[in-house]
Design goal:
The complex is a heterodimer of chains A (384) and B (130). With 384 residues, chain A is α/β, with parallel strands linked by helices. Chain A is 39% helix and 18% strand. In chain A, the strands form two sheets. Chain A has a nine-stranded mixed beta sheet with strand order 3-2-4-7-1-8-11-10-9, sandwiched between helices. Chain A has a two-stranded antiparallel sheet with strand order 5-6. In chain A, strand 5 and strand 6 form a beta hairpin. Chain A is globular, with a radius of gyration of 19 Å. The two termini of chain A are 18 Å apart. Chain B is mainly beta and 130 residues long. Chain B has two helices and eight strands, in the order ααββββββββ. In chain B, strand 5 and strand 6 form a beta hairpin. Classes of the chains: A alpha/beta (384), B mainly beta (130). Chains A and B meet through helix 5, helix 6 and strand 5 of A and strand 4, strand 5 and strand 6 of B.
């Protein structure tokens, strides 16, 4: 297996991009990534997208986006694993370069979510759960995570304020990210008094509906070295699956697919979590970040709430989590999220993260997750 | 709108609570599967779900998906039945204040939702306090 490098990144401002189509937001970011890499020719491209069929009525994305990017007849594939589609695209691109099949691969992620009503968007997102045995009974994603929160609070004594602190921290980080959908702070009081969605989760516990895209250029280490420009290496990649129906899990407080994916990625990298200085994780809901910090092994089982309360996961803490603002403040265009996590880590490792820079960061980890943890993808990056 | 076949295909589970018991290890799958998630065996016999169980977790939905807008707020939960099967359903005939982990419930056959004025009416099980 060959070593793989990230030589270019591209992302534009996320939000409700009424004036732009899916193909335009993708192409803009892909061009930024290609320009950042100084590359014009690619061997292939992989795009993560959860549900362009339901959000904009368009499938066959690989070819559509290759065409609009001017890269035909390069092979292009769209991959899907619900909210971890972007992480999966990165992993597929990584595998393609590592295998030697391709030397330069464009990895992208995109979701255009505001071309449908909120109700239709909720339905599209709900397809990441078990449609026949969860959706049929009127379950929503916030409801599934709310049930995980109720179980975690009951078993470990996690508090309502600790959940809110995740949102407060991530918005503080996001206020320093000009590309974030919501680049502003929120107070504890604002989170605790925001409207209830599914008890105990309130609207400010939830990541938003977002239009956005993100892109990376990967290549072999050999090719990266010839360019004589700084780059970042991908030193670990892990993926795992679990039941998509929450009811089938052994423990509603534990995200096993994340724990296994992280173990695999760390083992490939030959590292421990203590060797990593920043973490971009899938905080689709505040409770998710708490459970992920436990699954990654940053804290013991049940201690995730205390960790955020004590500032362990703040920038400047022992394990900075979501310096970009996370899904909560940066936005969550589902298929793009996993790719954007990698972009934040690359920027941090290049020392280009501005006000939210984690000082002295040499290694970073991304954790991207589908559904309630039915799939997880973890990558580890290292500054060369 | 789903076709009738997509709906009636699930009737044995939704109306008659049919599950599959693994002939090798006894694990009960709901809905039935072709491969046992516990031991990997492929032979099952049909069994009926236990009618009662205990709530493991729950929430109250305030923002509903399409088709459930008229029902908000409504409670949902995951319960573990006496036979070890865990399943998700609405919890009804119950004050929100009395919802708790450990609440004893039984399955009851109810109307869940409908496809507009002329479409299929969706039935299935809900949890009610035992």
């Amino acid at each position: 297996m060959r070593d793989v490098a990230v030589i270019g990144v591209g992302m534009t401002k996320w939000g409700e991009l009424w004036e732009k189509s899916l193909r335009t937001i993708f192409t803009e970011t892909a061009l930024l990534a290609l320009d950042d890499a100084g590359v014009d020719t690619i061997d292939s491209m992989v795009v993560g997208c959860m549900s362009s069929g339901l959000f904009v009525g368009q499938e066959h994305l690989g070819s559509l986006l290759s065409d609009y990017l001017g890269k035909n007849p390069a092979p292009a594939a769209r991959v899907e694993s619900a909210c971890s589609s972007g992480g999966l695209a990165l992993r597929q691109g990584f595998i393609e370069v590592a295998s030697g099949l391709s030397d330069v691969v464009l990895v992208g992620g995109v979701e255009k979510m505001t071309d449908v009503t909120g109700c239709e968007a909720t339905y599209a997102l709900g397809t990441a759960a078990d449609q026949e045995y969860e959706g049929y009974h009127g379950l929503t994603f916030p409801a599934l995570y709310a049930m995980m929160a109720v179980a975690h609070m009951h078993k470990y004594g996690t508090t309502r304020e600790q959940l809110a602190q995740v949102a407060v921290k991530n918005h503080l980080n996001g206020s320093k990210n000009p590309l974030a959908q919501f680049p502003f702070k929120v107070s504890m009081e604002a989170v605790l008094s925001s409207v209830l969605v599914a008890d105990p989760l309130r609207i400010l516990d939830c990541s938003p509906i977002t239009d956005g895209a993100a892109a990376l250029v990967l290549c072999s280490l050999e090719t990266a070295r010839k360019r004589k420009k700084p780059f970042v290496r991908i030193v670990g990649s892990g993926q795992a699956s679990d039941t998509i129906a929450l009811s089938s899990r052994k423990d509603f407080c534990w995200i096993e697919s994340t724990q296994i994916a992280a173990q695999k990625a760390l083992s490939m990298a030959g590292r421990k979590v203590e060797d990593i200085q920043l973490f971009e994780v899938h905080d689709c809901f505040t409770i998710a970040e708490i459970m992920i910090t436990e699954a990654l092994g940053l804290v013991k089982k049940g201690r995730g709430g205390k960790a955020v309360e004590d500032g362990l996961t703040a920038i400047g803490g022992k394990f900075p989590v979501n310096p970009s603002g996370g899904l909560k403040a940066k936005g969550h265009p589902v298929g793009a999220t996993g790719v954007a996590q990698a972009i934040e880590v690359v920027k941090q490792l290049r020392g280009e993260a501005g006000e939210r820079q984690v000082k002295g960061a040499k290694r970073g980890l991304t954790q991207n997750m589908g559904g309630t943890g039915g799939s997880s993808v973890v990558h580890i990056f290292e500054a060369d | 709108m789903p076709t009738p076949s997509r709906y009636w295909r699930e009737i044995p589970q939704r109306y008659r609570y049919e599950a599959g018991r693994c002939k090798a290890c006894g694990f009960i799958c709901f809905p039935p599967r072709l491969v046992c998630p516990r031991c990997g065996a492929r032979e099952f016999e049909t069994t009926k779900l236990a009618g009662t169980g205990t709530v493991l977790t729950y929430t109250i939905i305030r923002v509903a998906p399409e088709g459930f807008e008229d029902q908000v707020p409504y409670a949902v939960g995951i319960a573990e039945l006496e036979d070890g099967v865990k399943l998700t359903a609405q919890i009804v005939d119950c004050d929100f204040a009395s919802l708790k982990i450990g609440l004893k419930v039984r399955l009851e056959f109810r109307k869940l939702s409908e496809d507009g004025e002329a479409g299929i009416i969706h039935y299935g099980y809900k949890f009610v306090p035992a």
